[in-house]
Specification:
Blueprint lengths: L6 H4 L12 H12 L6 E5 L6 H13 L14 H7 L6 E5 L6 H12 L8 E6 L6 H12 L5 E7 L7 H4 L3 E4 L5 H14 L3 E2 L1 H11 L3 H15 L2 E2 L1 H8 L4 H13 L2 H13 L4 H18 L12 H14 L1 H18 L5 H13 L6 H8 L8 H11 L4 H21 L6 H7 L1 H16 L9 H14 L5 H9 L3 E3 L2 E6 L2 H9 L1 H12 L6 E5 L12 H11 L1 H9 L6
Parallel strand pairs: 1-4, 1-5, 2-3, 3-4, 6-7, 9-10
Antiparallel strand pairs: 8-9
Helix pairs in contact: 2-3, 5-6, 8-9, 9-10, 9-11, 12-13, 12-14, 12-17, 13-17, 14-15, 14-16, 16-17, 19-20, 20-22, 23-24, 23-26, 27-28
The protein binds zinc ion.
The site of zinc ion has 9 residues, from helix 4.
Length: 573
């Protein structure tokens, strides 16, 4: 027969000293025993697997011990202690209220309460999951609890204190058990591993501890499971594989990429994670948890909110120093937005990918962020308005901004031509990753450059205007002609180009971003700007005519044409 004993039972603590992670509480209990200040009823509250029942048993053993140590620990050697350890003591009675919650169960228990113990001083009654007792059972129990015999001590345990009725609460001394800290669990797992001749990596045990969420019993059963899966050598890799936990290295790398603005790497890492079979929402929650850990690591006073081993804690601290708190706040907010939108999103993957892009753009706000900030619909056709609004509202150095504007204006035009809806402009950027990456790098390089603000004369402005016009002749002869014909003039502190009709105005405005970029570069001044206005002055020769006006003019000025027009019954198309 197999004599295998699960670790949670095999390594159950037998003294208060060996209870893990509850030192405050166990020293209070030891004090009470040493000073003989015993209550008749105790209520042990706290999450599952943190040592409530173990403490209750040690307590029962200690108060019946014939040779109690001066600090209130059981000796584990006397007849009573041995009977307890071999589990045939008559001084302890356990009832699991989860499965025995009827009035009859309580009645048979209270009958036992009346019988004094044969050996030892106290009979201890442990009722586990006491909140599960039925209302009638509670009432039946209350009477015994009010007038217990001197030899009886009750220890009630519950994971849900709020479900225990007040009349019971008020008759008990209450002890609140904490979740056990990661480091305490890891330390204990190390001890168990050593005793079992298992070699384990600290990181591996740390993952088990995290998965156990503060419960030692769970940690030990996960440990057993891992040992049966990987044998006597437990590595970090084997643990995350068998527990289906996402390697936290992914999160560290992702945040590095967000900070660098590397959209393509971030999207590829996300894809890799999905290919490994991880759930999208778990990924979002994990990423949020990671960022939260980085956030609390940024301040020495909040690092205690972190639940991680020292090595990992050090990495969080380093990442928080690299990224800075402003970046982390912003990233957390973006992740939170994504988490909130996730449930209702119809394209969940795209939602996460857009979030990743936005995270990459925290450092270099480009298209998506600027658009969001200004709330400018890409459908607006007047690029002049866009350019000017952006320049006033966004505090990004001019050169990088300009690039974004250019990209956006172009992208917008494409979208309009194809008849897409404006919201798709975001997804367009996901398909242009390589180009985007280049842009981001370029932009970040330019951000480091200080803004140029050299003086320049009106003459040099006009000369450069002409030179642009000449250069553009081959590509756009009409623009070249218009620009050469209407030169910019200085008015107050700005430059104005006065044209005579809206077609000319549009022609120049359409290429305004490129003209400005050229002028700023040549004049070494990032604040160069100009506006294009239609002259109010009536000038017949220069006036822009509609087809109808042209026809009327021709009919008036040319009698032969007029005759032909009426004879042939011509009309405008
Ligand atoms: Zn003893």
């Amino acid at each position: 027969m197999n004599d295998y004993i699960v670790s949670a039972r095999k390594y159950r603590p037998s003294t208060f000293q060996t209870v893990v992670g509850q030192s405050n509480l166990t020293s209070t209990l030891k004090n009470a025993i040493a000073t003989k200040h015993l209550a008749h009823a105790y209520l042990f509250c706290g999450p599952r697997g943190v040592g409530k029942t173990s403490c209750a048993r040690i307590f029962a053993k200690a108060i019946n011990c014939l040779n109690i140590t001066p600090d209130g620990e059981p000796c584990n050697e006397c007849d009573s202690c041995r009977a307890f350890n071999e589990q045939h003591s008559f001084n302890i009675h356990e009832l699991d209220a989860a499965s025995n919650n009827s009035v009859e169960d309580i009645r048979s228990l209270t009958e036992q309460v009346r019988i004094p113990p044969q050996i030892g001083k106290y009979s201890v009654f442990i009722i586990d999951e006491v909140h599960m007792l039925s209302q009638a059972a509670f009432n039946a129990f209350l009477k015994t609890l009010e007038e217990p015999p001197v030899h009886a001590i009750f220890i009630l345990a519950t994971t849900e204190k709020h479900k225990v009725i007040p009349t019971i609460l008020s008759r008990c001394q209450i002890y609140d058990f904490n979740r056990i800290g990661i480091n305490d669990i890891v330390e204990h797992l190390f001890f168990v591993a050593k005793s079992e001749n298992v070699i384990a990596e600290k990181q591996a045990l740390s993952v088990i501890a995290e998965k156990a969420d503060g419960g030692m019993r769970d940690a030990l059963s996960i440990f057993d499971q891992i040992v049966s899966f990987c044998g006597t050598n437990i590595t970090y890799k084997s643990v995350i594989e068998s527990l289906n936990v996402l390697d936290y290295q992914y999160y560290f790398t992702l945040v590095e990429n967000f900070y660098k603005g590397d959209v393509s790497q971030s999207l590829l890492i996300f894809d890799e994670i999905l290919n490994k079979g991880f759930d999208m929402q778990h990924f979002i929650i994990g990423l949020a948890q990671h960022l939260r850990n980085v956030m609390v690591s940024s301040d020495a006073s909040t690092t205690r909110l972190l639940e991680a081993t020292e090595e990992v804690e050090q990495r969080y601290v380093e990442q928080s120093k690299t990224c800075g708190i402003a970046f982390i706040y912003k990233a957390l907010m973006l992740i939170n937005e994504c988490d909130l939108a996730f449930r209702t999103s119809r394209n969940k993957r795209l939602l996460i990918e857009i979030t990743l892009i936005r995270l990459c753009q925290i450092q270099n706000p480009t298209v998506v962020e600027i658009e969001k900030k200004n709330d400018i619909s890409p459908i607006k056709k007047d690029s002049q308005v866009n350019v000017e609004q952006k320049q006033t509202n966004v505090s990004v150095p001019q050169p990088s901004l300009q690039q974004s504007i250019k990209t956006e204006v172009k992208a917008t035009n494409n979208i309009q031509n194809k008849g897409f809806r404006p919201t798709i402009s975001i997804s367009t950027s996901t398909t242009e990753i390589p180009e985007k990456k280049e842009k981001n790098q370029e932009t970040s390089e330019k951000i480091k450059v200080e803004q140029k603000n050299c003086d320049y004369s009106e003459d040099s402005f006009v000369e450069l205007w002409k030179s642009f016009a000449t250069d553009v002749r081959e590509k756009n002869a009409s623009l070249s002609r218009t620009m050469l014909k209407y030169l910019p003039q200085k008015q107050n502190n700005s430059y104005v180009v006065l044209v005579v009709n809206q077609l000319q105005q549009k022609e120049i405005v359409d290429d305004k971003v490129e003209i400005i970029a050229f002028l700023r570069d040549k004049l070494s001044n990032d604040f160069v700007n100009f506006s294009v206005e239609v002259s109010q002055k009536e000038d017949n020769d220069e006036k822009f005519y509609t087809s109808e006006e042209k026809l009327n003019k021709m009919l008036n000025e040319n009698p032969t044409f007029s005759k032909l027009y009426s004879q042939m019954d011509l009309d405008l198309d």
